[in-house]
Amino acid sequence: MTERMSRRLCLGGATAGALALAMPRLAVAGAQIEEPLIDSVRSALSSAIHNKAPPVPEFGSTEARLTYLRWLGDMSERLKKKIPGAQERIELLQTIWYESKRSGLDVSLVLGLIQVESNFRKFAVSSAGARGLMQVMPFWTRVIGDGDPATLFRMQTNLRFGCVILRHYLDRERGDLFLTLGRYNGSRGRAPYPDAVFANQRHWSFKDRAEA
Length: 212
Known about the structure:
mainly alpha, globular, about 0% strand, about 210 residues, Lysozyme
């Protein structure tokens, strides 16, 4: 973690708190900006989106599976106030975990981003037209998807797009999470949005009690 990111993390709590208190029915986050993609990048992103592998986690050991199950139970409790239904919570968390890992992203970062973007409302729409849990702009379905923006209201589709796009931005920004989040939000270089995501990420961090 860079020194700049550490400073951003320390400053994020107040911004995120204000954001949560002021959360309206419409999503408050910004939106990705459409940029030209070279053919190889477009092809790679399209391939990542269309891989139909089901979100079934695989584990290298029994202990890894047990750690995952403890994470799932812990996160489900934290999410209960936002999503009362246990089955819906578990399905959502399983898919977030799978899509985050699949894209090489920190699960707590993706959860923090979802909280800021949509507050876990799968039918959220921003003033810019971004849709769903991860507030994906409809142009992405034309650029790398099937061209149907309505699919962004489907949980797994939205999470698949969101995580693939976030990974793409992270690669473009050479691992700089502050700039990556700004690009995802359409506010690259400005602090409020990354600060809010980092602050909310801390709420979703997980320390396995079995390893403490």
